Amino acid sequence: MRPFRQELKFLIHHSVRRILLERWRRYLVRAPFTNRHAVTSVLSQYYDSPHLIFYHEKLAGIRLRNKVRLRTYGREFQRGRTTILEIKYRRDDLVRKLRHPIPDFDESQLDPTRWRFENPVVRSAFLGLLERYRLRPSAQVYYQREAYQGLVEGDVRITFDTCLVGLHPGERLTRELLFDPSRRLLPDTLAILEVKTTSGIPGWVHDGVLAGELQQQTLPKYVTAVEVLELTDLSSAGVYV
């Protein structure tokens, strides 16, 4: 399991993104596995209980909470592409992940009852949550991520997320859905800035945050997707998709 890292999140206008990148550019390099514009597509399938316990824990501000998701770096889950199964543990601004790569993915592994693990520690963690919460697919979230890491401070990661879209389990991202305003989780004028580090926030990041007069604020992707897809109504009625 990875060590706890600090995460700071900000909701910013695109004009602020440009100012910050100009200010920080000499401290950053393009993150691995991104294109020449430092951008990659991200698609996550989230898992939750029949009554959306993870969603409600986030709304209630529970300090210690979990999140389970299957993530691929592309516009769809594809057979044979490496896919990552994750448990995300959060304690206030501190986060750590247990990650399980699936190197030869096929669509049957979207079903949590088909998950298989060789490592006993990983198996216990995932299957424990699966059995305790009766996990099942809840919502998908797609977005485009512009990602950088520190040139000197290699543990520092700066990302800007845009084009956020909510999808039902199994639903494929079409051009119509990508531009459907009813599925958008964030206005086109805004981006989610995330700063992540395991060894403290560098001074140059602090300077940029102060200069931009940024206040910690974010849009929780999974929570917003649940609400955009109106899954809360289904859950309260005892129906689950």
Explain what the structure shows:
- The chain has 241 residues and is α+β, with helices and mostly antiparallel strands.
- The protein has helices at residues 14-24, 53-60, 120-133, 175-178, 203-211, 221-228, 231-236, and strands at 5-13, 28-30, 39-48, 64-72, 83-91, 94-102, 136-150, 157-167, 190-197.
- It has a single domain (5-236), classed as mRNA Triphosphatase Cet1, Chain A.
- It is built from 7 helices and 9 strands, in the order E-H-E-E-H-E-E-E-H-E-E-H-E-H-H-H.
- The chain has an 8-stranded antiparallel β-barrel, surrounded by 4 helices.
- The longest helix is centred in the middle third of the chain and has 14 residues, at 120-133.
- It is globular, with a radius of gyration of 18 Å.
- The two termini are 31 Å apart.
Structure in a nutshell:
25% of the residues lie in helices and 34% in strands. The longest helix is centred in the middle third of the chain and has 14 residues, at 120-133.
* H and E string: EHEEHEEEHEEHEHHH
Domain unit count: 1
Estimate the global geometry from the Cα principal axes: globular
CATH architecture: Alpha-Beta Barrel
Q: Oligomeric state of the chains? A: single chain
For the biggest sheet, the summary is: 8 strands, antiparallel, barrel
| Low-confidence blocks of residues | 236-241
Radius of gyration: 18 Å
Mean pLDDT: 92
Q: Estimate percent helicity.
A: 10-25%
Strand content: 25-35%
Tally of individual helices: 7
Q: CATH first level: which class?
A: Alpha Beta
CATH superfamily: VTC, catalytic tunnel domain
CATH-defined fold name: mRNA Triphosphatase Cet1, Chain A
Order of strands in the sheet with the most strands? 1-6-5-4-3-7-8-9
The count of β-strands is 9
